[in-house]
Design a protein that fits this description.
Layout (H helix, E strand, L loop, with lengths): L11 E7 L6 H9 L6 E8 L5 H8 L4 E5 L4 H10 L6 E5 L3 E3 L3 H11 L3 E10 L2 E8 L1 E3 L5 E3 L13 E3 L6 E5 H7 L11 H11 L3 E12 L10 H18 L2 H24 L3 H13 L1 H13 L5 H7 L5 H13 L2 H4 L3
Helix pairs in contact: 6-7, 7-9, 7-10, 8-9
Length: about 350
């Protein structure tokens, strides 16, 4: 796939997947022009935008290499199309609704060079409109088989130590291209949501750790493209949640987590039914079941090539805490971030 790793355009290829993000792109791209680390090229994959995004970038940011697609292929496929063209040592991914601190990329590159056992590096993402509050500090995964936004709602000066985490949010992360060569790219069946959790899980199973770099800061206009608890987020999130679990969870850990996974699904079903998203979550689970045969085929390959022990994976998994998760959702609906910090 990447047999010829001849470099061009610097040490890092920075990929932005865009879909009708014309109003978001100026701040995002201006932030990249201000980076202290300069050894990188920018690739924008446009997923069939109809708002003039491509012409705007061509005119105002000629340094950006554009891959214009005729239709929206999703976040996973959009990134993969760009990744297949990359011949640099590292690939950085950045959402179009994220504004990077000037030292963001410099700190991520330094992190991967300092920690050779890491296949990826996670950023500290702060809320754009509330920069004293963490959006996420890397990704976590729970023993119920669900993703967790690590650090969400905590004070922005918290989570200030470098540490090993389950994975990186693909909205602001740096990856070794050698890891992609080994484990493969994003799973395009996911379309969007949970594709980065799936990638992180596959990486961990093959021994590629993820290091959280708190000095690598971005300001995220959270849910600008995908509104929380929308029909879209409920459908893709809860369909793909099942596929991550089916594909990646080692057999010995499935036995220890299955009951909690069922409880999580029942709780999610009740919550989204109360939120008027009953049809979305039913459709998500039905489509997850329809894809089981395909995902089980993938599972055979993934589990056959695992290089770590079950106890290592178990140690990465967070305890599922239903009450704080539920309370944070309710407080986010009410917009009360000050109380989220107290949880």
């Amino acid at each position: 796939m990447f047999s010829d790793l001849k470099k061009y355009g610097g040490k890092v290829s920075l990929i932005i997947v865009n879909w009708n993000g014309r109003d978001l792109l100026p701040e995002c791209l201006d932030g990249l022009r201000q980076q202290t680390y300069r050894d990188f090229q920018i690739i924008m994959v446009d997923n069939g935008s109809e708002d003039g995004s491509v012409d705007f970038v061509k005119h105002h940011y000629p340094e950006v290499r554009i891959i214009a697609l005729g239709r929206n292929l999703g976040f996973a496929a959009g990134n993969n199309i760009a990744l297949r063209t990359v011949r640099t040592e590292y690939a950085a991914l950045l959402n179009n609704d994220a504004v990077a601190h000037p030292c963001w990329l410099e700190n991520l590159v330094e992190g991967l060079e300092r920690y050779p056992e890491a296949g990826s590096a996670a950023s500290k993402m702060l809320f754009y409109d509330c920069p004293d509050t963490i959006d996420r500090a890397g990704d976590a995964y729970t023993r119920a088989g669900a993703g967790l936004l690590r650090g969400r709602g905590h004070p922005g000066n918290g989570f200030d130590r470098r540490e090993w985490v389950f994975g990186a949010c693909a909205g602001a992360a740096l990856y070794r291209m050698s890891m992609f060569e080994d484990i493969g790219l994003f799973d395009e069946d996911f379309f969007l949501l949970y594709e980065d959790i799936d990638l992180s899980f596959r990486g961990q199973l093959k021994g590629y750790k993820c290091v959280y770099i708190p000095e690598a800061v971005v300001f995220h206009k959270a849910s600008n493209s995908i509104v929380d608890d929308s029909h879209l987020s409920v459908y893709y999130g809860h369909r793909n949640l099942e596929w991550v679990y089916i594909k990646n969870m080692p057999p010995g850990i499935i036995v220890r987590t299955m009951a909690m996974h069922v409880i999580y699904n029942v709780a999610a079903f009740l919550y989204f039914a109360a939120r008027g998203r009953l049809r979305s979550i039913i459709r998500a689970k039905l489509d997850a079941v329809k894809g089981i045969k395909r995902e089980m085929t993938k599972r055979k390959t993934i589990q056959a090539t695992t290089r770590v022990r079950d106890e290592y994976i178990w140690g990465l998994l967070e305890r599922e805490r239903f009450l704080p998760r539920f309370t944070r959702r309710l407080l986010k609906i009410s917009g009360d971030r000050s109380r989220i910090q107290s949880l």
